[in-house]
Known about the structure:
Elements: H1 28-34, E1 40-45, H2 52-59, E2 63-70, H3 73-84, H4 86-93, H5 100-107, H6 116-129, H7 158-167, E3 172-175, H8 178-182, E4 190-193, H9 216-227, E5 235-241, H10 244-249, E6 254-264, E7 267-280
Parallel strand pairs: 1-2, 1-4, 2-3, 4-5
Antiparallel strand pairs: 5-7, 6-7
Helix pairs in contact: 3-6, 4-6
Bound molecules: S-adenosylmethionine.
Amino acid sequence: MPPRTRAPSKRESPRPFLKWAGGKRELLPEILKDLPKGRLDLYIEPFLGGGAVFCELARLGRIGRAILGDRNPELVDTWRAVQAQPEALHAAFGQWGTTEAEYYEVRGLDPAALSPLDRAARVLYLNRRGFNGLYRLNKSGGFNVPYGRYATPPRLDLDNLMAVHRALQGVELIQGDFDAVLERVEPGATVYCDPPYWPTSATANFNFYDGLVFGPGEQGRLAETFRGLAGRGAWGLLSNSDVLATRALYKGLKFRAVLCRRQINSKVDARGPVSELLVRTGG
Ligand SMILES: C[S@@+](CC[C@H](N)C(=O)[O-])C[C@H]1O[C@@H](n2cnc3c(N)ncnc32)[C@H](O)[C@@H]1O
């Protein structure tokens, strides 16, 4: 008889440690359906964000090697701190209080003048103490989210940081454009791309996360690289909004529309589900 696998306990299960716009927790069951089954020898995720898909695959024990990346330097610093020194990071997070005055003081700190550990702790702090757990930078790259009034401010769960820390051992974290990560594709790799979505309305714009644009040019460049994955022997899955422009970009590849409850920041919007596209290179 094959050995019985034990379901991981909550304590051992890595979960995203940041609330991230566009986080994929809700779509996980659909995303898992479209990934190859079983163990993934090399998993590559170039738009990591809060890492919902990576955490879930790690929880299921399905990842061999992994290469993860994101363009946002502060975000990648935070993942690196969790990888290298989760306990010190947890302690650094605890150095600041929860009052409004303290929040604005921490928000006003210059990240470039902080140690990498304090810089990462500040990201976790602002994400948990700011309004709605939102991450938003202005055009000059400053964090401009107002103070969040919580009856009980969200805590930073050390057990979870430790679980993510374990999942990250041996993982390569790259800060940079998706191209730098996708250059690393090898035959047999599984790639999941979750770029900033193509806007669904004419009034929405293309720059969401870091004050930098992910416009039609970047969307086109990504589509081209994504189309090339099958020829390099890799499996690709990509999510984006379901609009005419994305259907045109991925025309000819296999895609399906999935319904997802619309998220406004961390809240579920009452206007009902929206359609999103899952595009894959094979299967
Ligand atoms: C939709 S989010 C990913 C969310 C993630 N799947 C999750 O579960 O939290 C898109 C991410 O792409 C990153 N990004 C934007 N432009 C990029 C680029 N040119 N190359 C790599 N990452 C980029 C953003 O910093 C953001 O974290």
